[in-house]
What we know:
The chain folds into 4 domains: 30-136, Immunoglobulin-like, CATH 2.60.40; 143-233, Immunoglobulin-like, CATH 2.60.40.1080; 237-375, no CATH class; 392-449, Orthogonal Bundle (Ribonucleotide Reductase Protein R1, domain 1), CATH 1.10.40. It is flat and about 80 Å long. The strands form 8 sheets. Strands 5, 6, 7, 9 and 10 form a 5-stranded antiparallel sheet that branches. The chain has a 5-stranded antiparallel sheet with strand order 21-20-23-25-24, with no helix packed on it. It is mostly beta strands. It has 4 helices and 27 strands.
Amino acid sequence: MGMDYDRDGADTNDSNTFTFPLVTDFQAPAVTDCEFYTEYDKSAKKTRLFAKMSVYDNHYAMCMQLGYVALEESGYMVKAFDRYMTPVYSEENSTTTVIYELTDYVDEIRMNSANGNCITVVTYDYALNQAAYEIPLPDDYTDFYFTESELTLSPNEIYDLKPLVYPNTEWPELLEYYSANMDVANVVGDKLVAIAPGESRIVARDPVTKKTASFTLTVRGEGDEGYVRYDKPVAENFTLTGYLVDKAYYMLSSEERELGMTGDEMKFVGENYGLSMYPSEAVTLRYRLDAYFPEDTKVVFESSNENIVTVDETGKITAVAGASGAGKSTLLNTVFEGLDLTTGGISEKIGRGKNTTRHTQLFDLPSAEGGYIADTAGFSLLDFERFDFFELEDLAHTFREFTPYLGKCRYTDCTHVGDEECAILEAVAKKEISPIRHASYKELYTTLKGKKKYD
């Protein structure tokens, strides 16, 4: 492309010409191939499922996002599996390979996708061209069958269901399994668990063609030949998947935070269970539990220090506060052997611990019972004089234990500090609200009431 301009009266070089290439690109990256394959994970004792995709772009592919198409009230929507897109490190005019693990997404695709058996990948390049590709999962079975026609187990014994499929490029993990008599046996994922003496037919079913294969299961009773006593198993899988943001602050002077906005459904990225929260912010954990005996299995949420963070029986986490350098991480390392959280020494200057933890993170508990525990960052100062966390009239609403009593006081403008016939004060007197929490409320109330108003 050439461009010239007039020198507006100059004696020489009345015009100058600049030449440079101008390229327009309207072609989005294309998925040219998708190879499905499996790998057996010996440590987890499970088969992992993968999709290896080839993506071509005439210039440079930038990124991809994997998900599925779901039918919602507003229409068809692409639901992404991960919060972030996958970068594509491509060369100009080339094909690049990107590998996705699908192990944890198969059930979600089956239950929530519009057609029940497809993944959707959206590709982007640096010119912001984009394209979407719907790719069927490998479930085009010519035939499948169990090698066993009969099987005998003892109560609480677990057995892996592994039917043979043809062609062998298809995934048996995409078949549906069920027990005809759930009083005798149950199927969780691709695991068969014996429950009580008796017989049941165990069935594998293709959800597309409705074709089935089956075998007969006999569960031994105590005293039967070959009977073995097994402890009752708990769960095939327990995983934190994400959280609902119940309450989050967003200040215009700060960058957007990864916690999300109030009402957002957020997903954890891989095994990164970190949460960065301000005091009184709250989220409710989402999890997947594949229990062998659902009626006997319960997820229990606990906080090691409710002065730092509280959690209720539904998994709602509320950040409270915790002094910086107070020893929260050191305490967790002492109580739970194997956590190995980073800690600091004692400051000679201030005579207390040094601030080491800089974010809130969930860790797997290294114990037989399992579960997760949160290690939170502390604080050195809460400055209500300079920052508008909330207005005075909103203060009572930040104390969740006040909620059942709000609106029940004699006066509509009740301060809940010393007013007559105050429902909050009556609840404190009855020990329905902690006096310590109410003392914190009064302290914050006094601070906010004395705060200067600026134009």
